[in-house]
Prior knowledge:
This protein has four helices and 34 strands. By secondary structure, it is mainly β.
Amino acid sequence: xxxxxxxxxxxxxxxxxxxxxxxxxxxxxxxxxxxxxxxxxxxxxxxxxxxxxxxxxxxxxxxxxxxxxxxxxxxxxxxxxxxxxxxxxxxxxxxxxxxxxxxxxxxxxxxxxxxxxxxxxxxxxxxxxxxxxxxxxxxxxxxxxxxxxxxxxxxxxxxxxxxxxxxxxxxxxxxxxxxxxxxxxxxxxxxxxxxxxxxxxxxxxxxxxxxxxxxxxxxxxxxxxxxxxxxxxxxxxxxxxxxxxxxxxxxxxxxxxxxxxxxxxxxxxxxxxxxxxxxxxxxxxxxxxxxxxxxxxxxxxxxxxxxxxxxxxxxxxxxxxxxxxxxxxxxxxxxxxxxxxxxxxxxxxxxxxxxxxxxxxxxxxxxxxxxxxxxxxxxxxxxxxxxxxxxxxxxxxxxxxxxxxxxxxxxxxxxxxxxxxxxxxxxxxxxxxxxxx
Length: 437
C-alpha cells in the first residue's frame, strides 16, 4: 500500500470506526502515516466531525489532488485552491473559522504536514469587482463595484457578515481599517473621510475642497495621515499631512519643495509613517516618526526610484527599480538597525516585475509577475532569508498584497472578475522553502 492510498483509507477508517488490517500494517511501517493517524485520533469528536465535513466535500470528491497540478476543490461555499509543491513540506495551520461569501463553513483541522502550498480560500466572490483590499485583525475593507458607483464595504471574519460603509452616489476608494475605524477617499469632495464603525459617524478630516486635492489616507488607532495638495508646494505639488484624532489638529509633515510630489504612504501602530517623495528628482523613501516629530530618509538619495512603501514600525518595504524600470524588485530595511546593520537589503530577484509589498513581523508579502504573464503571491521569511509561494500558480493577483497576523489577502482576477482571496500561513512560513541567493 502506498502513502496516497493510505491517506484516503485513513478517512474511511476514522468515519466507520472499523479495523482495517492492511491499513494498520502500513501505518505501523510508515512513520509519516503513523503520525497522521495519531494526530487524527487524538482530536475530540467536534474536531473530527468538522474535519470530515471538509474532507467529504472536497478531498473525497477530488479523489486526491494529482502531483504538480492546480485544482480548485469546493467544500460547501468554501473555495480552496491547493497546489502540491515537491520541494517543501508545509504545515497546514489549524483553521478554526474560514469565511466564504453568502454563507459560512466552520472548518476545524488538525495540524498535519502535507506537500501543499498554504490553502488559498476565496473570501468574497460577487459578479461585480472588489478591489483595493486592506486587512487588519478581524476586518477586511475593500472597494465594491456592484452598484452604479464605487462604495466601501467591510467584511467581519468573526461574525462572517458584510457591511456597506458608504452609500453616496459618487465614488469612494482606497479604504484602510484600524480597529473600529475606516479611512477612505471621497472622490466627489476631493477629501479624506473617517468612518467610526461603533457609532456610524462619518467625519471629513481634510478641508481643501478641491477635486482630487486629498487622497490615500492611512490610519492607526489615533492618527490619520494622507496626501494632499500642499499650499507650500504649489497647486502642482502634494505633501503628506497628519490628522491627530485626539486634538483634530492637521499638520503638514513634508518640508517645502515646490512642485514635488509625495505619496504612496503607510502608517504603523507605533506612529511610524513612510512615504515616497521626489523632492530630489527621483522618488525616495522617507520615514516620519510622529512621536519624535522627525523625518529621515530610509533609502539612498540616488538616481533610482523607490515607491509604494509599507511598514510595521520595525521594517519598511518598497518597490525598487535599481535593476531597471522593467524589473522592479522588493527591497527592505530594518529601522531598528539589527538586520544587515540597518542597511537596505534585497528581498526579491525575479527577472520580471515584483510589486505591491507589505510587511508584518518576520514576513514580507508581495505579488510577482510570471513568464506566462500572470501574477502570483509570494512570501519571504526575514530571519531565514527564504522565499516561498503563497498563491496558486494560476493566480492573477492585482494591486497590493496585505498581511495581518498570519492572514494574507489580495485581489485576484483568475475567475474573470476581481475577487478577494486569502491564505493562512504558519507562524514562520514553510520550514524549508527555496532560499533566495
